[in-house]
Amino acid sequence: MHKISSIVLSIMGFLSIIAGIIAIFWGLQADPMILREPEKAKQCAEEFLQAINDGSLAEAADYLPDPSALGEVSEDADPIAALIWDTYRTQLEAELVSGLYTTADGLCMDMELTAPDVDDAVEKIGTLAVERMQERVAAASDMSELYGDDGQYRPELVDNVLQQAALETLMCDLPTVTTSITLHLTQSGEAWMVIPDRALINALSGRG
After folding, report:
1. What share of the chain is helix, strand, coil (3-state, %, to 5)?
2. Cα(97)–Cα(147) distance, rounded to whole angstroms?
3. Measured between alpha carbons, how far is 89 from 204 in angstroms, rounded to an integer?
4. Which of 44, 54, 109, 162 is the most exposed, fewest CB within 10 Å of its CB?
5. How far, in Å, are 62, 119, 124, 131, 183 from residue 160 at the CA level?
6. Mean pLDDT of the chain
7. How far apart are CA 100 and CA 37, in angstroms?
């Protein structure tokens, strides 16, 4: 009887070793787990998104290792482009949709970015500009108000019509596009930073 008990105990010990090896194997295959959530990493992500929601991409850029990655429209940019950009950045809506989790690349959080559909807005501005120009032509009593000596529409007229069309279009509710983005976070000294990937930069710059 003692011999049988020893055999049973030996088998149980062997099975325990096998179970331990299997657990270690599966543990190596699984993604790392966060034992304690870094509060500063979460705070970095939340403040980054808050800056976006406040329409301040310049402030959001401070959370990137290279702030110039979020370029602004230059002061001498085309007025229509500047209007579209101003509307775009002020209507961005960012939302975190997950907690912190780890990947092989480090800490991440999932977010959704809802933005005006730039392509749709540009198309509507063009269509409305044509309509407004046709109205100007129909209402004109003197063709010199419309055409220059070269037979083309006067540049100042074209600029005026385009700006009018842009303002009318951008003041209306615009269709939006929502993009799912993985926010990558890394620690730099005691601070946490957002590592921008191409998806994030494209979405924030209107090229998403």
Report:
1. 55, 20, 30
2. 55
3. 8
4. 54
5. 37, 21, 16, 13, 41
6. 83
7. 7
